[in-house]
Specification:
By secondary structure, this protein is an alpha/beta fold. The chain is built from 9 helices and 6 strands; from the N terminus they run βαααααβαβααβαββ. Helix 9 links the parallel strand 4 and strand 5. Helix 1 (19-33) crosses helix 4 (88-103), helix 2 (43-62) runs antiparallel to helix 3 (68-80) and helix 3 (68-80) packs across helix 4. The chain is elongated, with a radius of gyration of 18 Å.
């Protein structure tokens, strides 16, 4: 028998909101606006440099190994370093442009809107995200999903990132829920799945690309968001 939950915690970036596609579109706009085609063979060449650097820095940020200002600066300066030198002020300005462009994008992961409607009709929904406060609400509002969530818990507000137990503790307090009443849905093995398990919360790993399991088996594994509707 499927366990009954009162509350669903759900990640935003790359679980509901298509971060990779939206960020790539926004980065292309910055690339064109700032004339970076004069410094790189193609946008795709630049993106292939940018993406692993950005992902690595976000991993470090989630682990508390770098600060938000360092993430903001380095994710601009390091991919550009082979062709363009930018100082800290310019890097911050470019990042501000990138966040503004990104937060205006509205592409969702396939099935995200339908899933949000389904879950909203049955459960208390709480966004638990490591994203920046200045853009997460804009992203949800622009994509038309903000109204489905009773609470939004962001690492910026809490002061710690998933997988740290503190952000899950704050989310539990806001939801007035016990860990055994909650299911966490997310795409990040480390931040969402390990973080939830360490906080005594059941986990549903959104794993669309069939990545290998880590050191334990999560409560559920899905490849498509709408698979959730057949499970809970």
């Amino acid at each position: 028998m499927t366990k009954r939950y009162s509350t669903i915690f759900i990640d935003l970036d790359d679980t509901l909101w298509d971060t990779q596609s939206n960020n790539k579109e926004a980065l292309r706009e910055i690339y064109d606006k700032r004339g970076w085609e004069n410094h790189f063979p193609s946008f795709q060449h630049f993106h292939d440099i940018y993406l692993p650097v950005n992902n690595h820095l976000w991993d470090l940020y989630a682990q508390g190994k770098i600060t938000k200002p360092e993430l903001i600066r380095r994710r601009i300066t390091e991919p550009l370093a082979t062709a363009i030198h930018v100082d800290e002020a310019t890097a911050t300005a470019i990042n501000d442009e990138l966040l503004a462009y990104t937060s205006a994008k509205t592409k969702l992961i396939d099935g995200a809107k339908e899933l949000s409607e389904y879950l909203h009709s049955k459960y208390q929904l709480v966004i638990v995200s490591n994203g920046f406060e200045e853009v997460q609400y804009k992203k949800m509002r622009g994509a038309g999903i903000e109204s489905y969530f009773q609470h939004v818990v962001l690492s910026d507000q809490v002061g710690t990132n998933k997988p740290h137990p503190e952000i899950f503790s704050v989310a539990l307090q806001k939801a007035n829920a016990q860990p055994n009443e909650v299911l966490m849905i997310g795409d990040s093995w480390t931040s969402d799945i390990v973080g939830a398990k360490n906080s005594g919360i059941d986990q549903m790993w959104f794993n669309p690309h069939g990545a290998s399991l880590g050191e334990f088996s999560p409560t559920y594994v899905i490849k498509h968001l709408l698979d959730i509707c057949r499970i809970i």
